[in-house]
Amino acid sequence: MPSEIEKETVRNELKSMAVETVVADIGDPSALKAAMNGIEKVFFVTPVVPQMVELSSSIIQAAKDTGVNHLVKLSGADADLEAVTLTKWHRAVEKEIERSGIAHTFLRPNSFMQNIVNFNSQTIKNHGTFYAPMGDQELPWLMRGISRK
Questions:
Q1: pLDDT tens series, the chain, 149 aa
Q2: How many alpha carbons fall within 13 Å on the CB side of residue 120?
Q3: Pairing of strands 41-44, 70-74
Q4: Stated pTM of the model
Q5: Which of 66, 71, 112, 65 is nearest to 95 (CA)?
């Protein structure tokens, strides 16, 4: 979870790029609609909880009701395979977005760059590298934070 300092840093950087941000309780459909009123594009991340699909459905419905033009969903690697519970949840949300008719982008990172440090810091410190069972496979890593075009 990002710290309050990290959140404030992100908000300040977004503000410097003239990006308007809004915050709403994803469990409150009326708050979502109020937050999305007049918004063209929505990037959303839901917590990994059993209600993930239901919470996402509220976001999608609010986007439809308020005329959002584009949804960007942080999904997960191999969501299209629906092999485990988490990928099934992600794919169910993706399918609902596809049926909504709203233009969309699905981001399917394998992991976050921060996880390398979080889970491999001792190996990096002691060996100057980290090890993973990937062979020569390329993986879509994502860096938490702000990205510019």
A1: 667 787 788 788 888 888 878 778 999 999 999 999 999 999 999 999 999 999 999 999 999 999 999 999 999 888 999 999 999 999 999 999 999 999 999 999 877 777 777 888 898 889 988 887 777 777 667 666 544 44
A2: 13
A3: parallel
A4: 0.76
A5: 71
